[in-house]
Amino acid sequence: MERNVQQNALVNLVAAVMLFIAAFVVTCYVNSLAGQAGSVFLGLGGLVAFASWFQLRLEENERLEKLEVEEMARSRGETALFASKESEIFPARRVRAQFEKFFVPGFGVLMFLLEAGGAWLLWRWMGKVTTGIVDVRALPSLSLFAIFALLLFLVGRFSVTIARLENHRLLRPGASFLLAGAYVCAFIALGIAGIVAKISAADLWAARALCILLGLMAAEMLITLLLEIYRPRVKGKISRPLYESRLVGILAQPETLFTAAAQALDYQFGFKVSETWFYQLLQKNLPLLLLAQLAALSLSTCVVFVDAGEQVVLEHFGKPAGPPLTAGAHLKLPWPVDKVFRYRTEQIQTFVIGYTPDEQSESAKVILWSVSHAKEDNYLVGNREPVTLQNENGDTNGASKAPPVSLLSVSIPVQFQITNVLDWAYNNGDQTNLLEDLATRAVVHFLAGVDVNEVLSSNRLEAAQTLRERIQAAVDATRLGAKITFVGLQDIHPPTTVAGDYEKVVGAAQQAIATNNYAKAYAIQTNSLATAQAFTTTNAAVATRLQVETSALARAALFTNQIPAFEAAPSVYKQRAYFQTFAEATKNARKYVLFVTNTQNVLIFNLEDKIGADMLNLQVPNN
Amino acid sequence: MKRNLITIIIGVVLVVIFLLLLFVFQVRQSEVAVVTTFGKPTAAPITEPGAYFKWPWPVQKIYKFDKRVQNFEDKFSENLTADNNPLLTSVYVGWRISDGGTFLRVFRDGSVSAAQQRLEGMLRSTKNAVVGRHPLADFVNANPQGLKFDAIEREIQDAVQSELSTNDYGIRLEFLGFKRIGLPPSVSDAVFERMKSERQLQISTTENTGKRDAQIIESTADRQAAETLANANATAIRIRALGEAEAGSSLHEFEQNPDLAIFLWRIDALKQSLNQKSTLIFDERTPPFDLFRNLPTNSVSP
Predict the structure, then answer these.
(1) Are B246 and A559 in contact (CB under 8 A)?
(2) Last residue of a domain, which of A444, A469, A494?
(3) Residues from chain A contacting residue B59 (CB–CB below 8 Å)
(4) What is the domain extent for residue A360?
(5) Are the Cβ atoms of B66 and A429 closer than 8 angstroms?
(6) What pLDDT shows up at residue B248?
């Protein structure tokens, strides 16, 4: 009987190792991420199966040794034998005890490291890997993993059943791993089937799930190792192997959950809930319920609901079955006979040419040419005036010509709608990218054939219309089945590095206008003042003339009247006139009268004007 | 018994699904399938959509290819134009698998990425050659008539298609177009500098034209003002002269007694000349100060 147990353990070990190698080879062949994670799981199963088999061998040796000793004791009946040390009498027992004391905990730590390290490294690696499953190898790999699952299930199921027998507990860890390995292989096959069904992330999701499983196993192992330190050790009580995972056990035999759940419910409710008819019904008909669920799932694929604004292409064995389905409910045959592909035909879809949004600069509320507001591409644009560079001698004959081009940054949103969903679905593989290529080509072509100043200054609306027509023509030529609804030249400007200079041109024009206006103002002022001054001068002359004429006439009249007076007393009249005039004229003059009695004296007069007091007290301004 | 029946049903369902997976395959409208038996293509590629029977792997293998137009974009690479200008170009290409069997034979496992790599190599070589035959003005020209964009694209497409047909890759080129054209960074910097200098030229022209115009306006105004004032002065002089002439007509009245007239003008002149602040020094002989003569209070004792 014991020999059979060892053989079973050996079969488990061989099966685990062989299927680990096979799964790893197929994984490399199909390049499956889930296969990588599953291979790690199967590899761990191989290690556990090995530890299990080795421990079984030690226990078998111990049992045989014990039998031998008992036989010898019965036949000789000598007490000397029992006088010697136990370790000398039972070396196999000592080896087994040493194994359990040192190797098993060490093996537990190794398992923890492998599980945790495997989960962590695989998770990181999945984030970086860019290649996926090789399509043409998917179906064969799917079949192989299904076969592995079947083989593991058969071996694992048998071992699990055997392990329930007394003294076969050490078979249980390896058997659980084999049975769980069967489900893991089926899970990997499911991921590959998802890829076959065009669910591109199915393999990655399966791989992530298996990584999480490895992580949980690592956590369980860590907790088990910590609890092992404090576990009370009762002599004679057989303990559960440290490397046996309860999680793997539940995964391999989910029906044990029923037992555990039943015990928990019984305990909670205080009566045998597990003996109620509902619980019994649930337990007995679980496969039937699962089958019914599968049928319901399959039936649910017989109805397709099409939302407003979308159209659905229905394929019957890959062939389009009639016109696209429009909004409403429709019946169809179950998957995979009939498959549906949805397209949002009414929705206006948009992409932008020449512009990659940048979150930081997008938040700016003011958009200036001279401040970069996105990652902008520069487009070549024509330059009407040829640019010629002077050569070293300063002349332009034979000198090299600089490219007669300029560069522009553009941001052109293009909006489109799918108008013919069958053309959209079946004529081109990557429709959106193709549409973007066609639109970009139209923009590049358009800009290459216009002058930079013209496109910057005028005809923007016409340019947008021209672009829309050109893109639509290209779309029609490639039978994309789309309608270009809008093309906008919303942002077309010189590149950021030169935009400032373009703005300065506008500034200079404004400055020139300002200078001109100042000059006009000056001209108006000058001319007005001159006109006024001319008028004043002329008027003053007229006044002078009038004064001169009037004064002359008056003086003549006066003189005519003075003559009789003078003739009456000539000397007196003259004296009188002289003194009257003298008195009047010198009234305000400073006068010095000299009496020249001593003609020898020299008189010196200081006739300098005195500085006025007000001049001496001038206040100096502060600034 | 009932439990066994359910188990059998589940088993049968699973077996049927498994057998269907093994023996039946679908070809979509957008696909072309090639069936190989022990690695050898058995018949013409299946282009019609539907469900087909096959022997399970490894007897028969199914290779499915997308028969729709597939597009890719080559690298933005530098070429030299016929007039020795460096030009960066990138083209997009639309291609499709025209013969699935040939495609599978030429490219290992019918790898689309391998086909695109081969196509890209071919495309780059052809593109370099074609771009080198045209001057830059054929690619960028402010005069749209001088632009030969379409012709260049056709030239590249024809050359690549000819290569594909000659070597029978099972691929057909559907369309080709320039996705981007540009200049190397160093040349772009030079173009930026030139664009800046053009703006600087415009700025200088505008500013200095403004200054010139302003100066013209100001000097014209000055000239006009001077002219106005000169005319006004001349008019004033003429007016004054008329006044003088008119005043002169009354001079004959003074001829009745010229001595008196001259005397009166003299004292009038004296009066006018002393209107300003004056300092006068008289001696005692000047009338009326001669009144001070012989006054005792003013005589100086010897």
Answers:
(1) no
(2) A494
(3) none
(4) 351-390+401-494
(5) yes
(6) 85
Give the minimum alpha-carbon distance from A485 to chain B in angstroms, rounded to a whole number: 22
Complex ipTM > 0.95 = no
| A378 and A332 housed in the same domain | no
Q: Of the candidates A404, A402, A410, A339, which has an alpha carbon nearest to the alpha carbon of residue A369?
A: A410
Residue A592 located in a structural domain: no
Q: Do A65 and A182 share a domain, yes or no?
A: yes
Average the pLDDT over A432-440 and give the result: 92
- Assess whether A169 and A191 both reside in one domain: yes
**Which pLDDT score, from 0 to 100, does residue B96 have?**
93
Question: What does the pLDDT look like over A437-469, one tens digit per residue?
Answer: 999 999 999 888 888 777 777 667 778 888 999
Residue A95 in domain: yes
What's this model's pTM, rounded to 2 decimal places? 0.60
> Which of A233-242, A361-370, A551-560 has the highest mean predicted lDDT (pLDDT)?
A551-560
Residue A546 inside a domain? The answer is: yes
Q: Which residues are CB-neighbours of A75 under 8 A, at least 6 positions away?
A: none
Please tell me the least confidently modeled range out of A185-199, A274-288, A313-327, B130-144: A274-288
Taking CA atoms, what residue in B is nearest to A512?
A: B210
Instruction: Characterize A522-553 residue by residue with b for buried, 16 or more Cβ atoms within 10 angstroms of its Cβ, and e for exposed.
Output: ebeebbeebeeebeebbeebbeebeebbeebe
Chain B residues 226-265 within an 8 A CB cutoff of chain A: 226, 228-229, 231-233, 235-240, 242-244, 246-251, 253-254, 256-257, 260-261, 263-264
Domain co-membership, A308 together with A365: no
Is A27 in the same domain as A140? yes
Does A6 reside within a domain? yes
Asked if pLDDT for residue A74 goes beyond 80, the answer is no
| Same domain, yes or no: A339 and A371 | no
What's the rounded Cα separation, in Å, for the pair B70 and A522? 72
Domain count, chain A: 4
Ramachandran region, residue B33 (left: φ > 0; alpha: ψ -120 to 50; beta: rest): beta
Topology classification of domain B70-183:
Tetrahydropterin Synthase; Chain A (3.30.479)
Residue B88 contacts A, CB cutoff 8 Å: no
Rounded Cα distance, B192 and A434, in Å: 32
User: What CA–CA distance (Å, rounded) separates B152 from A520?
Assistant: 57
A148 shares a domain with A185: yes
- pLDDT tens for A119-174 read 999 888 887 777 777 777 787 888 888 888 888 888 888 888 888 776 777 888 88
Are A529 and B225 within 8 A, CB to CB? Answer: yes
Tokens (6 digits) for A124: 């990181």
B85: chain A residues, CB-CB within 8 Å: 403
Are A470 and A533 within one domain?
no
